[in-house]
Amino acid sequence: MYSCNFCAPFQKEIVDLDQQNRQQVLQLFDEFQWIKLLNDMERAGDDQEIFYSPSVGVVHTDQQHEFSASIVGTENDSEFLLMFTRPKLKSSFFGLIKSEDKRYMSEKTVATREEARLYWVMVLDGDWEKLEAAFA
Questions:
Q1: 116 near 69, Cβ under 8 Å?
Q2: Strands 15-20, 2-7: parallel, antiparallel or unpaired by DSSP?
């Protein structure tokens, strides 16, 4: 199972969703109004406060791996910022000292919704090795 959330530009609070199955999580990504929300932000006047870029997030509840996608830019010049958070063993002092960072985060940008969706599916499939390599 997965827990999900989304951020809308003009809402101060992040919206948490109940436990979702794989199909529901995929549907959330596919049906999210990415471009409409970007356009709404672009048309917003100075009197309208923007809290977030349009974003969706998912937590793989068994693994506690988190993944989120945000869109930035304009309709004609946008990109997706992807963030992958997971436990990771880190080394310091030339590998002599090792410690686990329980919330290690990596970021990556991709140009299209289709590219972002490929990473979203990797999370749903639990393909951690591929994700780790992609975010290395």
A1: yes
A2: antiparallel
